[in-house]
Amino acid sequence: MIKIKKNSSTSGTEVQVLAQHIYMSVFKARRVIDQIRGRSYEETLMILELMPYRASYTILKLVYSAAANAKHNMGLNEADSFISKAEVNGGVIVKKLRPRARGRSYPIKRTTCHITIVLKDKSKY
């Protein structure tokens, strides 16, 4: 789900991207998000392409999506934008049962997370 906000106050124009129910631990996604918060768009792309974590690919797709929406819907330049807000929140936990020997079962818990990235235009400042 993609949300686009346009603030006419001093905060300028921002584009918000929200990805829900991603099969990933919150802690593993936060490890990557903490590295890109507050950085420019181009610097973020370089960091995410070189990181060896699985979460970086999903976050890279979100940053690309936010930049494409900023360019297409708002007419903003990608080079002039930066990551103003990036957060990861916990989602639902998918619970399953794995059958074991002698009629027993062990629970499997698959955690999900919601990732929010906000791009702002720095030329407005």
TrEMBL record:
Q: Which InterPro entries match?
A: Ribosomal_uL22, Ribosomal_uL22_bac/chlpt-type, Ribosomal_uL22_bac/org-type, Ribosomal_uL22_CS, Ribosomal_uL22_sf
Database matches in CDD domains: Ribosomal_L22
| Entry keywords, A to Z | Chloroplast, Plastid, Ribonucleoprotein, Ribosomal protein, RNA-binding, rRNA-binding
Single GO MF annotation: rRNA binding
User: Among its keywords, does the record have Ribosomal protein?
Assistant: yes
Q: What cellular component terms from Gene Ontology apply here?
A: chloroplast; large ribosomal subunit
- UniProt GO BP: translation
**SUPFAM superfamilies linked:** Ribosomal protein L22 (SSF54843)
Q: Which domain of life is it from?
A: Eukaryota
Task: Give its localization.
Answer: Plastid, Chloroplast
**Which family would the database say this protein is a member of?**
Belongs to the universal ribosomal protein uL22 family.
Q: How does it assemble?
A: Part of the 50S ribosomal subunit.
Q: What role does it play?
A: The globular domain of the protein is located near the polypeptide exit tunnel on the outside of the subunit, while an extended beta-hairpin is found that lines the wall of the exit tunnel in the center of the 70S ribosome. This protein binds specifically to 23S rRNA.
Database matches in HAMAP family? Ribosomal_uL22_B (MF_01331_B)
Q: What is this protein called?
A: Large ribosomal subunit protein uL22c
